From TrEMBL:
Origin: domain of life: Bacteria
InterPro entries per the UniProt record, alphabetical: CarboxyPept-like_regulatory, DUF5686
Protein name (database record): Carboxypeptidase-like regulatory domain-containing protein
Amino acid sequence: MSSRTKYTMKKLLLTLIIASIQIYSQSFSVKGKVIDFHSGSSLSFANIRVEGTTLGTASNANGEFELKLNGGNYKLIASFIGFFSDTVSVNVNSDLTGLIFRLKSTEINLPEVVVKPGENPAIEIIRKAIEKRKQREKNLFSYEFEAFSKGIIRTTEDINSTGSGSINLSIGQSDTTKLKVTGILESHSKGYFLKPDNYKEIILARKQSANFPPSVNTLTGGRLIQNFYSSDINFLGRDLPGPISDNSLNYYYFYIEKTSAINNQKVFQIHVEPDNPSDPGFVGKIFITDSTFDLLKVDLILNRAANIGGIFDTVNILQHFDYYDGTVMPVDYRLFVTANFLGLARLGFELNTILFNYKVNSKIEESFFDKAVITVLSDADKKDSTYWLSTQTIPNTEEEEEAYKRIDSLESIPKGFLDDYSFFDSRLNLNKNFSVSAPIAMYHFNRVEGHSLDFGLFVNDEFDRRFNSTLNLSYGFADKKFKQDFSSNYFLGEYRTVKLGLSAFNKTKILFEESDNYGELFSTLSTLLYKDDFRDYYYTNGFSISAEGEIFPILKGRISFSNRTDKSAFNNSDFSFFYKDKSYKQNLPVCEGKTNAVKVGFDIDFRSYIEDGFFRRRTSLGRTYTLLSMDVTLSDKNFLSSDFDYLKYEFLSRTFFRSFNSTTATVKIYGTYSNGSVPYQDLYAVPGNISTFSSPLTFRTLELNQILGDRVLTLNAEYNFRDELFRLLNIPVIKKLEILLTVFFNAAYGDIGSKSKEILTNPVQTFKHPFYEIGFSIGQGLLPLSVDFGWKLNYRNGNNFRISLSSVLFNL
């Protein structure tokens, strides 16, 4: 053989090898459908596995599936409870379509279940399934998986994105209006678990229809995925016993509906529902194998008792399980929700997730886990079509494909100035970064400024979501003054964990506004309609600069300098629509002068966070947490040329913790101590309320700004029973009313130092001995309103008991 021929053969061989490597390393799409052999009907959510691997997927609602495989020979297995599995061999060297799995229903002879007198055979099956779950938990130390999630939003009308990156959800039409797909969210992620409770998820890629911002897509991550091999399943803020939880036999009623099979393995189809229909829980069917007592499938709904207020028409959960290295793991998670709020807003939500490529009991170092439970990679939103072509996904249905096209075309239409505006919006969006005040925010009234016109210009998320700025202008027709309030901030760092701030102002300020929980709209309406301006005001002008940032994941530090000059304000208007003969109370004067102050502080926050691609957002996920905050403020005549000399210390602690079932408790402790002459407007006001209204974590029997001091300690403790207490009492009529109960206890000590007393402009009431009050709130699950009942335990006078209304509407 000549050297030339040998060279030609070597070259040809090398070319074939390279081509072979390219074929077998390239990812191809294998599409197909799973159907019933006899009827030809689609089998929704069937399980498709690649033999000898942990790769797999599940069919969609139409029985369609898609696998992404490298070149090579494979055996694909489709399975479905009640059918024999079907195996198809494929040689993958290009994209394949039209693959059909035809599953035959099982026709093996299954013995009838023998029911002995006084014995429910389902009980023993569930008991063994619980023991199998416990054995699984004992043997499962860690695992890794990949997940693809698709969220589908259905509404009666198309959802529009707004310039600020949020969305507008229109109120629905009649109950007969058909829901349509109006939003799609998709994500590809990797999840990691290590005993006892370490969890982390990394979102590798995400995409969504054009009417949704990427930040919303974080919600499709694995933290939403429930695993029915867990003892408790959390839904709507409530831990519900799972069908094979430790106490399920004492909570649920079970009976065998029928026996089925998967291949030649007998499977029990068992009905489950709470023993007491008024107890929150799951209703539906679960599938458990006969010989191994493994849970293979759940098809459940939330009962009415778990749906406080009846907002959701249906909440349906579907989940399948399969074996990975001998361990049963979830292969999918399907959530179907429909809601109808008072017949006005109708919507639906679907979450379809497939989990694949498991690595069970793999070695994962504990140091891998940190405070970030979900991290979105910086390029997750930049993945192009080539990435998604090689990634395992759930194929879009015809309806979803049409929705993508329709939404994209709608979003491409130029929007008018008022297209996204609704009456209660406080801003009008000019584009995604700029907005101005909406009509509802262009007017306010109080007895100092009178009728006032307001206008604001807002810059949001400019320069890669690092820069925000506001400019508020106002003119009061009674005091004949122009006011300006400018602020801006800029974020530094990969996750924008450092913020630099600047503000300049010449404005009217609410006296003790840090203790005021009411909104501007509520205050204006109260003043105009009832001639009850419950606030006091003063003028202030100056500037401030600040810097704050994350020092450690649990520690944030801050420092600021402020220069301001305060002046008293006086009544300039007596206008009101009604009560013409009634007069407004006189506005309180303040300590006039200049305050130059340096403030240094820190926050400690042990909560985990989500890194959403731009920011680190803290999340409690309904679990126990404590927040701590400390600040020191120095106002000095010599060093800072201030008119007031004082050193102030402030401490704040807020603890939230879960108790039994859905009950929660919140404890807030605030303390301040000052040395020196603190001006009246900088004293601390114990949070009180106006006569007939109230807010959570405030003193219900105290008036707004009734107790002041520069040496104050307050405790607010609230225990939210939700409807659990009435369920425990088991009074049938009351249980069905979904009455929500919260009990509270508040205590306060307040005093004022001698130097601060010397410069007081108004009398001050203090509590030199601790003040105590108790009470409770009654609400209903569907209504955003509760009634508060509060009693003074000491310092009793003519106002020892108070009934008031509490609602989030008062914050508008």
